[in-house]
């Protein structure tokens, strides 16, 4: 039998931030609250956030969970959210960089002029982690878990055009953002090790999980839509199951620093948490250092 929510160690006394109150984020927050962590669920929709908090409190008696506003498409919002935590929290033990958008058919931009997927999925989380580093360093072997995807395999970091201003491809930009998240997780661990930050940085992906990200994406049409309705249940899994690799990375004693976890089934689409395949391009240290430098410049944030 594979690893499940029942295997999460007691999280009493630990403080967690989870970005994105729907789908995977909700299931992650629910499981952490059930393990007695204090959970801050962050997102840009207060109504959805309030509903998520209410649902968690209904399912977990005595859950210590709250919603806080965070719009990852705005560096100003990221700064305001982080500053509130820096003021109110003694430390941060767990940061789950979960929220994201997937494959909008036309190119969109964040408030700061970044391509939407690169800005929300990656740069917003890069800046958030930088802001919260002082709190993370106060925690006890704090963990940062960054959500990647099997789509990182098709991604390329387009250094000359990170914002996809030329030749926009919805899936190409999505793949880049998820490759960037995996590279970030690996590079964050290397920097933590070399600078004695005391962090465990890990990455995870949900496989093919049935979430709002899928439902709100471009989706198939026509005959492809009909085929999708037939075959999707065979190759996909629930959001709760899709959250397990994240929860394993966030809590399991056997999760390795710098590890990457996903489902153990065929093509890593569904199954129980297990080490996931990392493409060689995600492990190129020169590219990771260059991406880190570009990210610091774009977000005006450094890790100190």
Keywords, separated by commas or semicolons:
single chain, 304 residues, alpha/beta, Rossmann fold, two-stranded parallel sheet
Order of helices and strands: EHEHEHEHEHEEHHEHHEEH
CATH superfamily: NAD(P)-binding Rossmann-like Domain
Task: Note poorly predicted spans.
Answer: 219-231
Residues in β-strands, percent:
5-15%
Structure explained in plain terms:
The chain has 304 residues and is of the alpha/beta class. It has one domain: 3-Layer(aba) Sandwich (Rossmann fold), CATH 3.40.50.720. The protein is 44% helix and 14% strand. The chain has helices at 23-34, 46-59, 75-88, 116-138, 170-195, 212-215, 222-235, 239-242, 244-251, 285-299, and strands at 15-19, 38-43, 64-69, 94-97, 143-147, 200-204, 209-210, 237-238, 260-263, 273-275. An 8-stranded mixed β-sheet has the order 3-2-1-4-5-6-9-10, with helices on both faces. α4 (116-138) links the parallel β4 (94-97) and β5. α4 packs across α10 (285-299).
Outline the fold blueprint.
Blueprint: E1 15-19, H1 23-34, E2 38-43, H2 46-59, E3 64-69, H3 75-88, E4 94-97, H4 116-138, E5 143-147, H5 170-195, E6 200-204, E7 209-210, H6 212-215, H7 222-235, E8 237-238, H8 239-242, H9 244-251, E9 260-263, E10 273-275, H10 285-299
Parallel strand pairs: 1-2, 1-4, 2-3, 4-5, 5-6, 6-9, 7-8
Antiparallel strand pairs: 9-10
Helix pairs in contact: 3-4, 4-5, 4-10, 5-10
